[in-house]
Amino acid sequence: MRPQRILATLLVIVAFVAGCSGRSGSGSEETTVGGSDSSVSSSFGDMSAVCQEGSAKGATALGVTDDQITVGVMSDVGFTKNPEFVDAAKVFTSWCNDNGGINGRKIVATTHDTKFMAVRQQITEACKEDFALVGGGAALDGLGTKERLTCLLPNFAAQVSQMAELGSDLLVQAAPSQKFGYMPYYQFRYWLLKEAYPDSANAVGIINGDSPVTKVLGDMQIESTEAAGGKFVYNDLYPAAGVSDWTPYAQSIKNKGVKGLIFYGQYNQLAKLESVLSGMDYKLDWIDPNNNAYGQPFLDLIGSSAQKQTNLVDLGGVLPLESTEPAMKQLQELYAKYAPDAELTMPAVRAFSSWLLFAKSAASCGDELTRACLYDTAIKESEWTAGGLQAAQDLAPGAAPSPCFNVEQATPDGWQAADFGPDEGVYRCNIPVKKTVGNFGQGLTLSDVNKSMSDLN
Questions:
Q1: What does the pLDDT look like over 400-421, one tens digit per residue?
Q2: Hey, which of 2, 201, 293, 350 would disulfide with 289, CB 3.0 to 4.6 Å?
């Protein structure tokens, strides 16, 4: 494969997976932030005393000393230039340390910059120094799963991309996200095809980036959509490097009579396609740009198409950024205080959920802060809401994902909640989840690296 083709493929993979300068030679940056600011509340949403002073002592595990806990944050920031996970770590650790840390131990966050391809190397570095991984993600995370399990490193991930990691052991997904073995976005598809736009059910189309990794994601979407009653009349790939003229694609969509379109790729490319479709005066019933597009940049790109086309995204049971709910308002205030120049994004909200879970679990372990205690405590959470940032999640390994979802629509006035029939607060939770049927890959387990849960200590 030519270098240009490799780069293009990498770019489109990054665009699909929802989401700091390094130490010399390591790609990592260690940061200790926060002091003692008693004016900052230690409560978050409906959680009380997330972080606290204390007298916990002892080097109870790798990365744990009398006065600090070192954790790792995985990020492709050196490749994507997107610091959202780094910013989330800065905000949380600053706030937590200002409130005394975890039973008096300060949190030190080490950013492991995978620069997209260096996942294995950075996991290896994390294995040498970190107590756990928290609030991060990497597009090719599966490349380091074997190393992570070999060193028994728990991962409180904000985002998981590849099947090897998604179905792996010692993984804790605090925020609503894709769960191994279950159809992604099934409830959203059911609402679109059965209720909101039933005329579109027999005329669904999908455009996916031409990459072996990302095509798996597209195949999963096809299975989920068909299970919800959809019939595909159009299935196409676009070059990973992007398209200079989307007219042929738009013409094919029109000729096939597509009424509902799933787009998996860079949202700047979708903006170009929508411009052509609108120029042809062809309006679809709905377009799903996937929730990577949820934010102001996509609205800026589509311009007048926000009025001409109906762009809908499923946030999967996480409060929208424009929410006025107390937990979201508090998170916005923490960002304004500790990272005023940072952008609060949906992946950052998911990262904050992971940080909150880590802090609560670690604090409950007291003086006996071990990886076993941390992990065992976290997975006992059966209704985790991150203080109100999200719909309740059962974090036990193998537990079904929450059926709750919520839909946002792009409008000329910004992102707004669609009329999707919420029945539990801002979420809708009355459409059951559905298990996958196809074989999309397997997760790595401890037994795959000749380990077991009894080795975790």
A1: 999 999 999 999 999 999 999 9
A2: 293
Element (H, E) at 134: strand 133-134
C-alpha 427/C-alpha 385 separation (Å) is: 13
Stated pTM of the model: 0.93
Tell me how many degrees the CA angle 252-14-249 measures, rounded to the nearest 5: 5
What are the residues whose beta carbons fall under 8 Å from the beta carbon of 7, sequence distance 6 or more?
A: none
- Sign for the CA dihedral angle at 150, 74, 222, 194 comes to positive
Task: Of 53, 34, 102, give the one whose Cα is nearest residue 368.
Answer: 102
Q: What is the pLDDT of residues 98-137, one digit of tens each?
A: 999 999 999 999 999 999 999 999 999 999 999 999 999 9
Q: Which of 175, 34, 21 is nearest to 92 (CA)?
A: 34
Q: pLDDT tens across 276-333, in order?
A: 999 999 999 999 999 889 999 999 999 999 999 999 999 999 999 999 999 999 999 9
> From CA 222, how far away is CA 205, in angstroms rounded?
9
Q: What does the alpha-carbon distance between residue 57 and residue 25 come to, in Å, rounded to a whole number?
A: 32
User: Domains in the chain, please, with CATH?
Assistant: 14-180+324-395+442-455 (3.40.50.2300), 186-319+401-417 (3.40.50.2300)
* List of E strands, 281-424: 286-288, 312-314, 407-411, 414-417
Record the tokens describing residue 9, joined without a space.
């493929």
